[in-house]
Amino acid sequence: MSTITAEALSATTLLRFATAGSVDDGKSTLVGRLLHDSKSVLVDQLEAVERASASRGQEAPDLALLTDGLRAEREQGITIDVAYRYFATPRRRFILADTPGHVQYTRNMVTGASTAELTVVLVDARNGVVEQTRRHAAIAALLRVPHVVLAVNKMDLVGYEERVFAAIAEEFTAYATELGVPEVTAIPISALAGDNVVDASARMDWYGGPTVLEHLETVPVSHDLAHCHARLPVQYVIRPQTAELPDYRGYAGQIAAGTFRVGEEVTVLPSGRTSTIAGIDLLGEPVGVAWTTQSVTVLLADDVDVSRGDLIVPSKDAPATTQDVEATVCHVADQPLTVGHRVLLKHGTRTVKAIVKDIPSRLTLADLSLHPHPGTLAANDIGRVKIRTAEPLPVDSYADSRRTGSFILIDPSDGTTLTAGMVGESFAAPEPVTEGDDDGWDF
């Protein structure tokens, strides 16, 4: 395994990405190949895979076993649960979510892709774009994943034919563009043979674009904090009340989005009270500015009533509070969600009572058609819901903020997670195509 210094890691950026695709399209093999060829596999892990492969009568190591860890997954040769893997190259760190391909595990893909900045959708070159391919493209669009890679796999089984790849890439790109996916990059690969995964393929010299790893290492990761709506969900109120700090009152939490600065006027929601940031503590030290994902303690100039679940935002950029939330949801529980269902809604660090007032439609991902007023959503269903909360909530549109525009519905009787929700419109508007745009791949 390659050695990467702590200094090099601290200088690299982090990319969260997910894999998706139909059953037997080769997702786990791709992930295994990516880990193996980038030298991100420990010796004992590789030896364990070699032993497991040999016991099954396979001559070469089955790299899919590097991610398919459940006994049922190995026995059936499928992925059932989301498998997370962490690896790094000298250029970037990665958190990878290998998600299942079966229709009944759609909720698992939603879980894995919900925090992803890039999704790799695999397609078997022999089968082309199928219903599950469209389903995964639609979910990536619903979750506003900014980058989508189409990996046309098993090119070795179609003779590495350029025309096969081009036809699949054209069909998928057209469909994804209709959904509003902002960027599609198509790459022809053979995960089993290693073509265009980490190393460029000599058998597809007609393709002049990046390998999968090259694209993962170079795709822009948007951390432009100037365009984020600054949001700090309060997780804990710190009151030491010691002789050294008799009057200290700090509001601790992880910044969900944007940047906060000392001296900035802020509003506490849902109360609407305003104050000014008097100080920011980061790791026990005062700082003048803090930004997304940092865990901080904010001190306010005024004695304002702030408690867990409140949201601190810049006064000039405060979201509206509402008790009526309309959202696109993916139902993840086995028990159905019905009109009139009484639930708990968790938004950030705040949990409130709520009731499902209406289910206007259920989405058929195969053709994006809407089934009006179904009255219920079953496991893995995606649809629109209208929810009435017992208390006002400061919610953003999911299109503006994936952190503060999302929520979950919880069963109040046993704490089971029922539904994952995204506030606002379902899909982004398609980007206008201008003359000179390429087709998403480079020959």
Q: Could you characterize the architecture of this molecule?
A:
The chain is α+β, with helices and mostly antiparallel strands and 443 residues long. It is 18% helix and 34% strand. The chain is built from 8 helices and 25 strands. Strands 7, 8, 9, 11, 12, 13, 15 and 16 form an 8-stranded antiparallel sheet that branches. Strands 2-3-1-4-5-6 form a 6-stranded mixed sheet, sandwiched between helices. It starts with 5 loop residues before the first helix and ends in a 20-residue tail after the last strand. Residues 1-11, 69-80 and 434-443 have low confidence and may be disordered.
Residue stretches low in confidence (pLDDT < 50, at least 5 long) are 1-11, 69-80, 434-443
What is the average per-residue confidence, as pLDDT, rounded to a whole number? 84
Q: How many distinct helices? A: 8
Cα distance spanning the termini: 33 Å
Structural class: alpha+beta
Strand content: 25-35%
User: What is the percent of helical residues?
Assistant: 10-25%
Q: Using only CA atoms, what is the Rg? A: 24 Å
Envelope shape: globular
Largest sheet: 8 strands, antiparallel
Number of E-type strands: 25
